[in-house]
Amino acid sequence: MCLAALTVGMLSGCKNKNAKTTDAENRTAESEWVDLGLPSGLLWACCNLGASSPEKCGEYYAWGETMPKNEYSLTTYSYYNHENGIYTLNKYNTQQAKGLVDSLTVLEPADDAATALLGDGARMPTDAEWQELIDNTSAEWIRQKGVRGYLLTAANGNSLFLPATGFCHKDSFTDSDKIGNYWSSSLDLLMPNTAHELNFGSTGLRTGGCERYYGFSIRPVKEH
């Protein structure tokens, strides 16, 4: 079950609660990459997509959409057709009962927010790449510059900070500082209305799945 659906404490208005920064500031921060010495050689961005520092949440995106919005719901999701109260998928689907079957299981570049906004080889991590990050770093739940989140430190001494960003559902935003939800680029093959994600709270990190229309954070990656 999606961790986001189990939490409470919603705030009204699904908007980025961080101070707005310029596009230039966002691109500068997001162009800084961390080499954690992972087996794959993958580099991780030091900041979330749309954030100017590691402690900021950045923007929130539905899975496969490349722009933030004010409401994250079934009716506003780009990949649902809605007719007579029935929602069917129009892209990224492996099951006929769910809608149009195209057997696409990983986001195409045009639908990957990190690629669309940053270019230069940036993309969203796959589910397996999130797991690689967890398996090859030590995780510490800390408060960094007043923000709760996980400090992930690799054997080479380099580290990433993942802020507890909360999430957006409908037109409400959960209070951050408690949980984190980060999209992967991987579709859930058994339940194609959901996609894989990283979620965490003070008790630990894990990969899971959540309905694609939720608004989650994105941490870009790129090849070495």
Major sheet characteristics:
3 strands, antiparallel
The backbone outline, from C-alpha atoms, is globular
Low-confidence stretches: 5-30
Radius of gyration, whole Å:
17 Å
Helix/strand/pairing category: mainly beta
Strand order of the largest sheet: 1-10-9
User: Span from first to last CA?
Assistant: 34 Å
Counted by DSSP, the helix tally is 3
Number of strands: 14
Classify the beta-strand content into a percent band.
25-35%
User: Helix coverage percent of residues?
Assistant: 10-25%
Can you write the helix and strand succession as a string? Answer: EHEEEEHHEEEEEEEEE
Whole-number count of domains: 1
Q: Can you give the mean pLDDT?
A: 88
Question: In brief, what are we looking at here?
Answer:
This protein has one domain (3-222).
Describe the model.
It is a single chain. 10% of the residues lie in helices and 31% in strands. It contains three helices and 14 strands. It has a three-stranded antiparallel sheet, with no helix packed on it. Strand 12 (194-201) and strand 13 form a beta hairpin.
